[in-house]
Amino acid sequence: AIVVSALKEADGENRVAMTPDIVSRLVKSNYEVLIEQGAGVNAFYPDDAYTQAGAKVVDRNEAISQASIIAMIDKPSAATIQQLKAGQAIIGLLAPLTDQDTVKALAEKKVSALAFELLPRTVSRAQTMDVLSSQSSVAGYKAALLAADRFSRYFPMMITAAGTAKPAKVLVLGTGVAGLQAIGTAKRLGAVVSGYDVRPASRGEVESLGATFLTTSVSGAGEGGYARQLTPEETQQQQDELAGFIAENNVIITTAQVPGRKPPLLVTQKSVDEAKPGTIFVDLAASELGGNVAGSKPATTVTTDAGAQIIGAGDMASQLPSAASDMFAKNVQAVITYITKDDQLTLDVDDDVIGELLATKDGEIISNRLRGAMK
Ligand code: NAD
Hints:
This protein has 375 residues and is an alpha/beta fold. 34% of the residues lie in helices and 19% in strands. The strands form four sheets. Strands 3-2-1-4-5-6-18-19 form an eight-stranded mixed beta sheet, sandwiched between helices. A seven-stranded mixed beta sheet has the order 11-10-9-12-13-15-14, sandwiched between helices. A hairpin with a 5-residue loop joins strand 14 (301-303) and strand 15. Helix 6 (131-150) runs parallel beside helix 7 and helix 6 (131-150) packs antiparallel against helix 11. It is globular. Bound molecules: nicotinamide-adenine-dinucleotide. Nicotinamide-adenine-dinucleotide (NAD) is lined by residues 121-122, 127, 130, 132-133, 136, 173-179, 197-199, 202, 220, 225-227, 230, 255-259, 264, 266.
């Protein structure tokens, strides 16, 4: 049988790449599953639950050395990569477009590295494997809840004997998968919501959720349904035009990403300084690469002198760990099913999904998109 392992993630990551439900499905389909001790604890999946589902709970060394396929959420550390063996497959968010050292280390080890960031998202066969979508959806939902929790007033309009509270005004910048989920969640909580994106195609999706679509004079549709990187002049123009929208809202949720690039700065220091006291910024793009809001810091809340809060919220999916893990594991299962046949790893580089999802195999960079991005 093919041996699939799931490892315990680094501190601060609450998700797990394999759930008991997916274990039992894999075991029924004749896979053997190993789970590193404690891997699911932060997602409320104790070791017992995996054992009952038919997995073997083992130590890390065994989980790595016995595996044909290793499933992870985040990229492996350099130390973990050193333990891998040629021909093993590893699946996860390996950050190939932004961390070339990891890609090179995996290639040197002759590991078959499948990186979810490289999945061709418009191929319909790949949709069940789309981790970026499943995790963005969780993140957008959680971001709206976090904003509502931190905001010092109501989201909905409240009519009471003690007076009427106005609804909160929520602005979502970047209306891809996460942004749309944030809009839907904020609407359900009763806020007055507007959305903005550089892709004009986004208008219909925003309006269908009952939110107002805002535009600037900058348009930035790029390849494959993604936004392109704007020029410095366009960026400045966009920032200037967005400043007015930001000043009128109570909550600003930002989600803008351009694959493989530093996230665009949408909210300048000046916009932060001019925000109403009590404004909540939730920056879903906040990572070590930067963020959409000036001064945002990953996994930290910064309170400004003027009383705004900037929440560095790049880790939202990890903050809803059970739901996020359920979907992640389902996406992993779809990949495993796709790359195996009759107890063999197939990994057909000529397949349009696998040929892109594969960052490295046999020491080579396989994905065209990654090859184009490698220096
Ligand atoms: P993403 O996470 O890469 O980016 C989030 C949003 O930020 C996007 O909507 C993008 O347009 C926007 N953005 C980037 N730069 C910006 C800027 N300077 N100002 C304002 N907004 C900016 O995007 P995503 O959520 O992964 O989705 C990207 C696209 O892919 C969307 O069109 C989405 O509908 C599409 N998609 C398609 C499929 C599919 O066909 N199966 C699956 C998932 C997503």
